[in-house]
Amino acid sequence: MLLFSFLCRYIRLINSFCLMKCGKILVIDDDNEDMVIIREAMEMINADNVMLFAENGEKALQLLDNRFSSEHVVPCLIVLDLNMPKMNGTQTLESLKADDRFRNIPVIIYSTSINPFEKAKCVTLGAHAYITKPVSLKESLETAQVFLDFCTTA
Amino acid sequence: MHELARVTLENEMDLILAHKRSMKLAELAGLSLSAQTTFATAVSEVSRNAIDSGKGGCLILSVESEMRDKYIVAGLKNELPDKNNSREGLEHAKKLVNKYKVSTDGSIELFYNISPAFRIDIHKLDEWRSLFRNEPPISPYEELKRKNEQLQELSERVKKSEDQYKVLTNSLPLMIFSLDDQGKLLYANDWLLQYTGQNLNSLNTSKWKSVVHEEDYDSFCLLLQNNITKGATTIKIQVRLLNRNSSDYIWHQISLTPLNTEENNTRIGYMVDIHAQKTVEETLKDNYELKQAEKKLKENQHILEQYIEELNRSNLELQQFAFVASHDLQEPVRKLLFYSDYLLNKYQSSFDEKSLHFLNSIQGASRRMRSLIQDLLLFSQINKEQIQFHQVDLNAVASDACQDLEMVIEEKKATLSIQELPTLYCDERMMRQLFGNIISNSLKYSKEDQIPEVNISCKQENGQIEIIFRDNGIGFDEKYLPKMFTLFQRLHTRQAYEGTGLGLAICRKIVEMHQGKIWATSEEGIGATFFVSLPVHPVN
User: Fold this and answer.
1) pTM of the predicted model, to two decimals?
2) Min CA distance, A19 vs chain B (Å)?
3) A16 pLDDT exceeds 50?
């Protein structure tokens, strides 16, 4: 009995090691155009095929859950928009931080909002960084690089 | 004793009258002619005596009818005391009558028997009395005498009655008076004279001017003059009359009634003190008005509260609208910026010059729109809900603000000198915005041929901290000062100086949120100075 439970814990530990390294970035955003912009920027810095997309918080959690159950992987970074229908950014962030499996995934808030209160709130909720959505090609490339850096250093 | 007739004894003529009346009484009592003459003679004797002695006597003829004896009686009363006490007449008379009495005051009574069988009752006496009264005068003298007596009696009655009325009018707590048709006082009772402290003459010559309140004087004069009262019955008005003792004006009701006699137009009137009634009336009226006012006030307050509620709601809605609108507007503007930038960078070679120019215009317009939206967002976020008070080191705030503006400062090679600033209880983020806005304003409106200088200093007095931002820029005409701190007010064209017209409005809102004041002075071409005054201890 005791041996079994020890074994289980061991397996889980090994699992959690495996989880961290899937190399994908999950972008949660309802704005199709923004997704296109990110993908374009990622392609321009030669980081193809690292993106996963979810159009709102609910779908994102579902996707995370699926991947975790089937492949025991989680993304190396979550890019989270704030203003979304159904489950908005802060709610999603709270759910992520409340789940043991996903708590340690770094979250970058990615929003148009320049509201300092919103920024502060996200940081308190455990967001890693806050990036304002780009207004130029240059900015979009810089942002893409930041995302990529997160993945490679993680 | 039943008195039947009287004869005053003054002269010889009266003696005849006394004789005749005595004869008549004896005749009526059923006495024989000789008995009549005897009784009349006896009466004449004493009457002559009375006239001679000048005692101002009076003959009273009467009847005494007791159970057994019945008499006709002639009484002689003296009005003046009997001086020489002459009894000569009585000496003769007492022999002629059956009985006589002399009183201590000198009055004499002569009694003459009449037949016991002769019935005397009240009806008969009344008959005799009216007989004596209505008997035609026996001579012109008697007629005259009678008239005279009647007149005298009447005059006495009138005098008595007038005296009574005078007493009455003086004892009533009323001012009573009479006026002639010219409004001249004919009579006034003591109350009126005492109350006013004047007499008839002075009231008539002054035309009551010193007595009647000036506000009531006109209507009072109308009343005095005949034209109102003519043909009317009783006229009443209310005036204030000066009380001489207390020097107060007391409300009185004046009532005037014309005496409709043919020969004159006298009016009588009274004045009654209605001050208490008037006071109550006025108090009630005041009370009523007060209540009405109170009611109105409550209604107004209610309306006001509704307005405030509505205003608050619309304010909140507006605030939310500004926030949501500016927030949601950011999205498409950002896209505009991004796509135009993308085209300009990636496909520059595919466009001709004109297209590039237009693309650049899209960029510029989008950028302006973006900063406008961001400023609006900022403005809408400065409100009571967002403010967070802490002890804030203003030196740190100033250096943070400078850091935010690092690029502009470098670009313009501006010099900023900041004196030691205090620590203040305020919202740090808003303070940073305030400092940033004012400094960037100074940098923006700097002179092209001169290195911009911004000097920030501070002084503290009367519980206020005054922060002074002085620059050497282009300045402004002070006549624009009232407009400068309001929304979307710009003194320059966009081509000359970029801006949203919100910077100083944001400053003012921040300062007002801190219960402070912001103002500026300037001389065109020399520079501008902005003053921010903030309370050391803001009231929560």
Assistant:
1) 0.50
2) 35
3) no
